[in-house]
Amino acid sequence: MKEKYLKFNYNNVLPFVNQNDLKAIQKEVTNARKTLDNKDGEGNDFIGWIDLLDQMDKDFLNDIQNTAKKIRKQSQVLVVIGIGGSYLGAKAAIEYMKPYFQKRKSLEVIFAGQNLSSTYLNELITYLKNKSFSINVISKSGTTTEPAIAFRALKQLLEEKYSKEEVKDRIVATTDASKGALRTLVDKEGYKSYVVPDDIGGRFSVLTPVGLLPIAVAGINIKQMIRGAKASKRAYKLKDIYKNDVHMYVALRHLLYRKGFSLELLVNNEPKLNYFSEWWKQLFGESEGKDEVGLFVSSASFTTDLHSLGQFIQDGKKVLFETMIEVEEPLKDLTIENDPLNLDELNYLENKSVDYVNKQALKGTMLAHLDGGTPNMLLTIPKIDAYSFGYLVYFFELAVGVSGYVLGVNPFDQPGVESYKKNMFALLEKPGFERLTEDLKKRI
Ligand code: PA5
């Protein structure tokens, strides 16, 4: 039998779940999957990410790659402006694959518009002053405040540095085909633009131009990434949960949730996955946290966080379980050499590799946490590359779609995100919010 690309070991969850419950939940998972496949559940107008992979043609990917090539040629820095789903996927892919320490001459991708820190924006402007740069501004709605503020400031910097024609040549926008302030601006100024498909929400958009362009600019093989996602799609067709790890993952996280483990921690032991966790947190947090239900999702990186959060995970209140991602083959390894003096008392590790130590640490941690009453499960990917990134993306997108339906929510909307915006606009006295402004003033 062909070996699975992604291995899933859930032995350390089984002591916490009852076999009858596992049997019973199969039906719920299967029904949820059918709802997703049949496109007849809530939010079914936002599941374009499922068919997207089959519709992607070579010309589209070549066009993205050509734009990326042009940006690489003309700039030392690409500033990607966006927030939430309009930045996390690209940031996750780039952090996953770029070297930890930037090579001197390579193009740098910097993100902006993902916060409202005046210091961040101010320091970025100073940093860019003597550098050639391009901008990829990304906003599906085209109206989001954070990226709009960053774009205005950085466009002005471009205008100080370059002629009108050159400015136009250095801006690429990714937004809705017809709606939103950004679309109006793009059409008026004649910038090159890519379209965010109507039926794909921000957190599912990493495999659209939203993620693909910045990822390609960073020199990552986007075709390989798509191949990984397609393989993942083929691997997790509707099947019995024992033959479908996405379904098993969904089933186990729900059984744990129902037993009071209402917090899921995504854990890595390779910091290149730290932003993958941020992407994952948005995917699950926005999809499931509504109607007063849902798991709270968080993340950790081991062994770093074993020296901080580890104490709680081991001994604290039994509210969380861990989903761990391990990389089988590290990108690079290092052997621990003999030291004749052995003053650090490390010679017992002579000729062992650092990755071997890392793996034993994870194995030991999983058992310790299990003994402490914290369930944990392990996903193993063969290595860090564009293919495994695409594979994991689709694995979790599919999982959250099915999981949301098991939970009984619409996994594809995010109504809660609007509340802070309304108050912020009122406090900023945005036209149209006068009534709320008066109400809020009384409460402050
Ligand atoms: O998942 C989502 O829909 C959100 O997180 C959005 O991606 C985020 O709010 C940014 O929105 P926009 O792309 O419209 O600027």
Largest sheet: spatial strand order:
1-10-9-7-8
Q: Spans of 5+ residues with little confidence (pLDDT < 50)?
A: none
Q: Quick check: average pLDDT?
A: 96
Radius of gyration equals 23 Å
Secondary-structure element series: EHHHEHEHEHHEHEHHHEHEHEHEHHH
Largest sheet: 5 strands, mixed
Got a strand count?
Answer: 10
Which compounds are bound in this model? 5-phosphoarabinonic acid
Structural class by helix and strand composition: alpha/beta
Proportion in helices = 40-55%
How far the N terminus sits from the C terminus, by CA atoms, comes to: 65 Å
Question: Into which percentage range does the β-strand content fall?
Answer: 5-15%
Helix tally?
17
Shape: globular
What attributes does this structure have?
444 residues, alpha/beta, five-stranded parallel β-sheet, 17 helices, globular, binds 5-phosphoarabinonic acid
